[in-house]
Amino acid sequence: MMKIRTRILLVAVLFMWVGATAQMDKTANVFLITLDGVRWQDVYQGLDTALVQSNYTEDKDLLNKMFSGSSPEESREKIMPFFWNTIAKDGQLYGNRTKGSKVDLTNKMLFSYPGYNEILTGKADDAHIDSNDKNYNKNVTVLELANKQEKYTGKVAAFASWDVFPFIINDKRSGVPVNAGYMNAKGALSEREQFLNEMQRQAPVIWESVRLDVFTHHFAKEYVKKNHPKLVYIAYGETDDFAHGGLFDLYMKALHNTDALIADLWQYVQQDDFYKDNTYFIITTDHGRGEGVREHAKWTDHGKEVQGAEHTWLAILGPKVKQVGETDNVQLFTNQIAPTISELLHLERDTKMITAKPLFLE
Predict the structure, then answer these.
(1) Closest to 346 in 3D by CA, of 22, 29, 17, 18
(2) Rounded to whole angstroms, how far apart are CA atoms 2 and 8?
């Protein structure tokens, strides 16, 4: 009789443990995604005809064929179909300044390292971060904050095309695994990871410091499939580098391709039991860029001397996100992203570190 009771008790404890584990796994997951140097105009206003007709575009007919439309709304949907067919229907979009919807940086540098620091820490730090040099960030990111807390330790990861991200995230101090630039996947590798390791340098190497986004995407996706992290950061990079090169047609194609990569990731998480219906996507950029071809407003440039480089945008999709679509008459700031992630994951946060208010999503 005692043996039967013991077995019943063990079975009950097992069911309680399984139930608790399932409940833990159903807590929110967050994917933070950035597209480097993408203007709000290209997200909201469709194809910029002035730039198409400029010397920045080599094949004007092809770009018009791919992305022009009878209205800005039709054009922008061709450029970013996932944004306008999924996020606009089920999520929230901020940053269309023609509608009074504004997202702005609080840092005054208006280039990448300061922008990513602001996104990830919730604070600008112009006093210490004034270059894109490979210096380890002294500030604590929300990734590190999560990884240092027991329930998220080992469940945070970052993947980036730009090779400065191990320094921005401070992988040595934070313990957050960062695969960036031309780093290989490590550990017990899947066949696809082995293939990606082999292929990433066999494909054209356009920039030594920035690999093609398709490799960053699939390294991230394979890791997500194997390890099911709770907080994932993916930083795509091609758009900014094509823009700096004055290649508007390749910039627009990269933006279109990145939209497709994000759609692929969203489709995957909605089919995976661990992520389905309890995963948030927060999508933004590290800075804006110039509005056209004029001096101090050149589309190729950004930085504190470039008009409009402080203007960014933000997209949010997830289970408790109110279906607002495109917003108007609102002011948000990039420093609100880290506290929003902290709020979604119920992190114990240092109020001295993250002081901005989180976004109200419901």
Answers:
(1) 29
(2) 10
Question: Residue 162 forms beta bridges with which residues?
Answer: 210
Contact 261, 214 (CB under 8 A): yes
235 - beta bridge partners?
A: 34, 160
Give the pLDDT confidence score for residue 113 in this predicted structure: 98
The better pLDDT of the pair 360, 309 is held by 309
Identity of the residue numbered 104: D
Integer Cα distance of 91 and 283 in angstroms: 11
Whether 262 has a pLDDT exceeding 50, the answer reads yes
Is the pLDDT at 295 greater than 90? The verdict is: no
Residue by residue, DSSP assigns 186-252 as -SS--HHHHHHHHHTTTS--SBTTB--HHHHHHHHHHHHHHH--SEEEEEE-HHHHHHHTT-HHHHH
Instruction: Show Cβ contacts of residue 331 under 8 Å, excluding neighbours closer than 6 positions.
Output: 102, 104
Would you say the C-alpha torsion 202, 205, 210, 212 has a positive or negative sign? negative
Contacts of 237 (CB under 8 A, 6+ apart): 36, 160, 161, 162, 210, 211, 213, 216
Pair 116, 107: CB distance under 8 Å:
no
Instruction: Flag whether pLDDT at 203 surpasses 70.
Output: yes
Residue 137 to residue 122: CA distance in whole angstroms = 14
Domains of the chain: 28-345 (3.40.720.10)
* Distance (Å, whole) CA 132 – CA 220: 24
Q: What does the DSSP 8-state code read for residue 298?
A: B
| CA–CA gap between residue 202 and residue 195 (Å, rounded) | 11
CA-wise closest residue to 94 among 319, 325, 255: 325
In this structure, of 22-26, 42-46, 316-320, the range with the lowest mean pLDDT score is 22-26
Residues 317 and 82: their CA atoms lie apart, in Å, by 11
Q: Is the pLDDT of residue 237 over 90?
A: yes
Q: What is the distance between the alpha carbons of residues 253 and 226, in angstroms, rounded to a whole number?
A: 30
> pTM here?
0.92
